[in-house]
Amino acid sequence: MTHAFALLLFIMLTAAQLPAEEMRAMWIYKTDAIVDSTDASTQLFDFCEKRHITDLFWQVHFTKLETGGRELKNVAPTRAFIQRAHTRSLRIHALFGDPSHALTAKHAIVIASVDGVLAFNQAGPSDAHFDGVHLDIEPHGLPQWKKADTPQKCELLTQFVEVHHKAVARAHASDPALIYGVDIVFWLDKTTPEGKPAYPVTFQGTTKDAAKHLLDCVDHVAIMSYRDTAEGKNGITALVAKTIAYADTSKAKVFVGAKMADIGPKMEGFYGQTETQMMAALKSVDETYRSHPGYAGLAFFMYEAFKTMPP
């Protein structure tokens, strides 16, 4: 058994055996500065180890090829970084996406980007492969969303579901072990007073909300359940309840997102609080859901803000 194969096997077995409370993810955006610096990489690895973070949603960038394909930038440093990350028991997911990618006209870009990650993996040593892809496509960020009525929003969400079905099929056809994850907002499974989906999506002959369609086909979802408390009707624990309940019987597992970045309204995150205060609040999320098979763990948005948070 080669060292590279043994390392890959260790990572896969570790991922399968980790209890939910020991799986934690984190979004990272200023990635080029980290892969280009041994010190910055070591600081990140130490940061993750201290906080039991196991999965990184790692922003990647692509070069558009004349053929229409997409090729990953910064290849050699990224491979070296992934190799080092794997020795620290971290899984690295290539993070990319844009609100416009929800639109049918842009689906080819998503597929080409997935192909770019697959090509990166195929061309490099096994211990330098991305463990997954993680797509951040937010249709509610489209300019037309703000003026859209409910049927128009449902049509945009249908295209959103379609692109993920196409992309996950492409990814798993080439590499069944590649983890396919997506970001979603917590209100996708909102219901009417009659208990019906507020934003119904009919796909492949079945009508249900977009979150359920995705949970049936992807490996992970990360809920952007951004609030400054876990408790109460509008707290994180309540906001993710329906999604995790469905995930318990579906294909995917759910990461529950917590935000500490200074972005958006104050009630959407833990900015201004200490790390101790935030983790005390989030403890109840772990305690509520750790026994659920659909619960993956917490996910932190984002490293750039987390590392400056007061202890």
Spell out the blueprint of helices and strands.
Elements: H1 3-17, E1 24-28, H2 31-35, H3 38-50, E2 55-59, E3 62-64, E4 70-72, H4 75-87, E5 91-96, H5 107-123, E6 132-135, H6 150-174, E7 179-185, E8 200-203, E9 206-209, H7 210-215, E10 220-224, H8 236-239, H9 241-247, E11 253-259, H10 275-289, E12 295-301, H11 303-306
Parallel strand pairs: 1-2, 1-12, 2-5, 5-6, 6-7, 7-10, 10-11, 11-12
Antiparallel strand pairs: 3-4, 8-9
Helix pairs in contact: 5-6
Describe this structure in words.
There is one protein chain. Helix content is 40%, strand content 19%. It has 311 residues and is of the alpha/beta class. The chain has a single domain (3-306), classed as Glycosidases (TIM Barrel, Alpha-Beta Barrel), CATH 3.20.20.80. α5 runs parallel beside α6 (150-174). The protein is globular.
Summarize the structure.
This protein has 311 residues and is α/β, with parallel strands linked by helices. It has 11 helices and 12 strands.
What is the CA–CA distance across the termini? 43 Å
- Regarding CATH, which class? Alpha Beta
Main sheet properties: 8 strands, parallel, barrel
CATH superfamily: Glycosidases
Strand content: 15-25%
Q: Report the helical percentage.
A: 25-40%
Structural class: alpha/beta
Helix-strand pattern = HEHHEEEHEHEHEEEHEHHEHEH
What count of domains describes the coordinates? 1
> Strands of the largest sheet, in order across it?
1-2-5-6-7-10-11-12
Number of distinct beta strands: 12
Instruction: Look up the CATH topology.
Output: TIM Barrel
- CATH architecture heading: Alpha-Beta Barrel
